[in-house]
Sequence to fold (203 residues):
Amino acid sequence: MAELSDLIIESTRFIEENLGINLAKQYLYYIAQHFSVADDLRAIEAINNYQQRLAALTVNPSRLEESYLFELHGQAQGVTASLVFDNGAVSMTFMLHQRRTLIGRADPASGSFADIDLSSLDPHSTVSRYHARIIFDHHQFYIEDLGSRNGTAINFVQLRPNVRYILSNGDLVEFGAVSLRFVLEFEDSEKQFHRSPATLSTT
Fold:
């Protein structure tokens, strides 16, 4: 018997190839609303991975170039970046592939689709459609709250809207009620950036 995650991928691919990317996004959003992380982890991961793939396909040319440059930089520096959800029972990883990554929730009615859609982890809709942005600039990662309804916090310290804050490896980032860990993985451990968890720095 086919896994549910495989069926989701196959059906989404069929819709994408025959009906277009936008309908495929709406289909995934609809499915995501009927799952919680406790239901089927593999299915949730399949949905999130495909949503990130579709988001990458619909970026404009300048963002594609930025994504390519970021990838080259990451390879040269031996570093990869991600946001990790881990509640003790379930673990999910969202890779940060672009220089600018929008975190939020999907809203097909308005045509809003974040690069990282946290809908499946946010049953009470505490994450805004355009909640926050993670930026890679001059060898450093930053986060900026975009005026979200429930705010963004780093290590339990609330961020001011529309201000860039430096992200460091291991930071706990809260988007509304959804908590994720910012993780940098280095080939050379000496390249890691350090900052006191109690201190927040802006640009």
Notes: DSSP finds four helices and eleven strands in the chain. The chain has a mean pLDDT of 75.
